[in-house]
Amino acid sequence: MAAVEVVVTGIGLLSALGSLESSWQHLTHGKSGIQQHQLFPEFPSRPLALIGQTVTSLKTLTQQVVADALQDADLPLPLPDCGVVIGSSRSCQASWEQLAKRLGRRQDGDTQRLTGETKGYGEFEELSPFLGVPLSTSSSPSPILNLDNWLDTLPHSAAITAARQVGSLGPVLAPMAACATGIWAIAQGMELIQTGQCQRVIAGAVEAPITPLTLTGFDKMGALAQTGAYPFDQRREGLVLGEGAAVLVLESADLVIHRGARVYGKLLGFGLTSDAYHVSAPNPDRRSAIAAVQQCLERSHLSSSDIDYIHAHGTATQLNDYNEAELIQRVFTRQVPVSSTKGATGHTLGASGALGVAFCLKALEHQLLPPCVGLTEPDFELDFVNTPRPSQIRQVLCLSFGFGGQNAVLALAQAST
Question: Which residues are catalytic?
Answer without folding.
Answer: 179, 313, 347
